[in-house]
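Response to reviewer comment R2.3. The reviewers asked that we include at least one raw input/output pair. We reproduce the pair for Uracil-DNA glycosylase here without editing.
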Amino acid sequence: MHTDWRDALLPVLRTAEFARLREFWERAYATDPQTLPPQEALFAALTLCPLAKTRVVILGQDPYPTPGHAHGLAFSVRPPTQPPPSLRNILTEIQADLGRPAHIRGGDLTPWAEQGVLLLNAILTVHAHAPLSHAGKGWEPFTDAIIRTVSERREHAVFLLWGAKAKAKIPLIDASRHLILTAAHPSPLSAHAGFFGCRCFSRANAWLTAQGLAPIDW
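Raw output as returned:
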C-alpha cells in the first residue's frame, strides 16, 4: 500500500485484530492456491490511489471469484478478460449518463484509480468460485477503517455506495463534508431497480467541480 495510507492507518495496523487478519491472509496464500486476487495485488487499491489523491470511493463487496479476473481493484478486470455483468452495467450507465463510452481499455479501471478513485472491496480476498467465502475473517473492520480515514482526512470526497451492503457504510462517513450517492447494485439482479439512470458519474463530477476539484475522466 502507498506510504501515506500506511501512515494514516498505523494505529489500526498495530492492533491485535489486524495481526489476526494478517495471519489469516498469510496462511490463506501459503496453503490455498485458490486464494484470490494474486497476493501481489492484495492492496492494489491502496497502492494506485494514495490517500492524498483520493476524491471518490467506490465500494464493492469482495473480489471476483473467477480465477484470472480479480486484480485488487473493485469491479475491475484486465484485458483480455471481458467485463463481467456488473461491470458491463457500470459501463452501460456511463454511456447513458455521459453520452460517451468509458475512457478505459476493456474493463481495466486502473485509470480511475490513478486519478483518485479508491476502488475498495469490503473484503479483500476470496476462495476461487466461492463468493463471500472470506467474509467475517477480519477484512470488514479494516476496510471500515479505510472508509473512516477518507471521511476524516479528506475534504469534499464522493462516496458511491451501490447496494444494501454498501449503503450500510453510510454511518462511517461525515455527510456534512462529503457527497454520498446511493443506488441499487449494478448486478443484473438489481441494476434495473435503481442503478440504471442513477447518473452517479455526472453527479460526482458536478460535485467535484463545484468544490474546485478536477472531475474524473470516467
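The chain has one domain: 3-210. DSSP finds nine helices and six strands in the chain. Further pairs are available on request from the corresponding author.
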